[in-house]
Amino acid sequence: FSLFSSSLSFYLSLFFWLLRFSGMTAITCFCTSDRDGQTLHRTKRGWMWNSFFLLEEWTGTGKQYVGKLHSDMDHEDGSVKYVLTGDGAGTVFEIDENSGDIHATRRLDREEKALYTLSAKAVNKTSGQDLERASEFIIKIHDINDNEPKFAKDTYVASVSEMSNVGAFVMRVTATDADDEAYGNSAKLVYSILQGQPYFSVEPETGVIRTALPNMIRENREHYQVVIQAKDMAGQMGGLSGTTTVNITLQDVNNSPPRFPHSTYHISTPESAGIGSSVGRIKAYDADVGENAEMWYSILDGDGQDVFNIITDSTSQEGVITVKKQLDYESKRLYSLRVQVTNTHIDRRFEQLGPFSDTAVVRITVTDVDEPPVFNRALYIFEVDEDTPAGSSVGTVSARDPDTINHLVKYTIDRHTDLERLFSIDSNNGTISTLQGLDRETSKWHNISVLATELSTALQTRVPVFIKVRDVNDNAPEFAMYYETFVCENVKAGQLIQTISAVDTDEPLVGHKFVFSLSTINPNFTIFDNEDNTARILTRRGSFNRREMSAYLLPVVISDNDYPIQSSTSTLTVRVCACDSRGNVQTCSNEALLLSAGLSTGALVAILLCILILLSKC
Ligand SMILES: *[C@@H]1O[C@H](CO)[C@@H](O)[C@H](O)[C@H]1NC(C)=O
Ligand SMILES: *[C@@H]1O[C@H](CO)[C@@H](O)[C@H](O)[C@H]1NC(C)=O
Ligand SMILES: *[C@@H]1O[C@H](CO)[C@@H](O)[C@H](O)[C@H]1NC(C)=O
Ligand SMILES: *[C@@H]1O[C@H](CO)[C@@H](O)[C@H](O)[C@H]1NC(C)=O
Ligand SMILES: CC(=O)N[C@H]1CO[C@H](CO)[C@@H](O)[C@@H]1O
């Protein structure tokens, strides 16, 4: 039992390869010619199994011949039948039951299925008995180079620092080939660069892309498109190939210093520019990008370095010149600054390329602004005596135009702050005078506003004027309260009947000092000044009689000791009452009560009438 294989694998594949690339498809004759090729060894059992080999991707007409089964029992008299089972039996592979010839029914692809395991036996047609035991054999599909290398992506993206050394790693690209790596060179790949020279190179075996030129500068060219080819058959002619594109970007390094495009800048600012406000911007340029183009500005020197600042606008990378000290056109009109710009992130590797900074001169011209008048004081406090006559001077305010053209200034009082029209101002010399007498007891302060106006420009400034009304002793002291007192009929001489005190609406600096006295010598009562702004009223004699005199009216003179002395006479009413031995009041005269109540005559008459009516009814 023997098996004729069509496989002379090496020669076959070589042959097939040649055929394929010479465009020939005469595989049929080739296979047929090999029919009487190798005869496999014979065994005792009659079967000798080995593998059949079959080339994939057969393009011939008709069915591809695989091989032939033959049993020693078969005497070629038509009594033996060959039967095939297993992978693809009857579909992919079919056997001629009489001759034992095996054919493939269609094209086979190794990359789809490389190995078929089948089983064959020889059967006695007459008796239906197996002549040979069924036994396995395999059909191996031989690779041909029918797959080209493939990259995972059409385009790769990579970057490498500009100015890298030659040979700097960029990235590795690898392709895969579906052909059999173990067999021939169908899957042996070699990489080459089709586009991107002389800037980049690729290692043929690994696919590692490296830089190939020194000093590649991003500022000159940033983007490169490199095409890499992978070719099988170890790169030999006739191999299949695939390509990919690698977009390579040079990454910026800080190899460019900032530069001022001008050596001198001219800036003009009005003198009124506020402290902290910007008067102008300057900008240096840097060929780098991002962080490598970041810079900061500083003032090196110049007569304006105490008057101006420079700050860095981190968004626009501009130097902003701001006012540090109030400008004044009248005192200085031109300043100069030497300004430096420096990269924020300096790369030590490139320092030898030169300084990563630059300087420029900024000239700042201060322009005149018509300024409003300026008072010589921020506020004025004047004092005036309350009894000064109308027309008296209170004080003088003064303002001047700070501009070089010294405009004339006029003064007015803001009438909203002096609604009572108590004051006037001399519009030429700023002297404030009273229009009326002032009363401190009505208002201690008159806080007004004075306006200074430049005649030609109408620019105006306002200043507060506080006018304090100084006290003058123009009020007399008087009783602090209404006193109602009495004296007992049985009183002794020297008895205290009332302590009195006084008040005064004036406000002397040293405090009040009241003096108490009786207006005339009185035989009935005396007064004793306690010298603490109170006084005691004492009896001078004993034994008062309410029937003889129901009440005494005692005029008390109270004076202050300010200048001019003010005094008043207040009357104290002392009723005479009947008391018990311990001095407790028992009865007092009604008339005295009424008197002491200090009622009006009308009321008094009414009350008297009532009393009369009451009496007449009794
Ligand atoms: C087949 O079987 C028949 C009947 O049993 C027998 O006569 C014949 O010799 C057999 N043929 C082979 C090749 O063994
Ligand atoms: C690669 O570069 C080309 C040309 O600049 C561009 O059109 C393409 O979009 C880039 N591809 C990728 C993936 O960045
Ligand atoms: C201001 O002018 C008035 C007359 O208009 C004069 O009486 C006054 O003394 C002047 N005051 C001063 C401070 O010159
Ligand atoms: C006026 O100013 C003085 C001092 O500042 C203050 O004490 C007083 O209360 C003010 N008077 C009025 C009416 O504003
Ligand atoms: C000044 C004064 O009031 N004197 C009186 C003192 O008392 C006698 C007796 O009551 C009166 O007659 C006085 O007029």
Automatic annotation (TrEMBL):
Keywords: Calcium, Cell adhesion, Cell membrane, Cleavage on pair of basic residues, Glycoprotein, Membrane, Metal-binding, Repeat, Signal, Transmembrane, Transmembrane helix
SMART domains reported in the protein's UniProt record: CA (SM00112)
Signal sequence coordinates: 1-26
UniProt cross-references to PROSITE patterns, sorted A to Z: CADHERIN_1, CADHERIN_2
Domain called Cadherin: residue spans: 71-151, 152-260, 261-375, 376-479, 479-593
Principal location class: membrane
Superkingdom of the organism of origin: Eukaryota
Record Pfam families: Cadherin
GO molecular function, one term: cadherin binding
Subcellular localization, as worded in the UniProt entry: Cell membrane
GO biological process: adherens junction organization; calcium-dependent cell-cell adhesion via plasma membrane cell adhesion molecules; cell migration; cell morphogenesis; cell-cell adhesion mediated by cadherin; cell-cell junction assembly; homophilic cell adhesion via plasma membrane adhesion molecules; synaptic membrane adhesion
Protein name: Cadherin-10-like
Organism in which the protein naturally occurs: Sinocyclocheilus anshuiensis
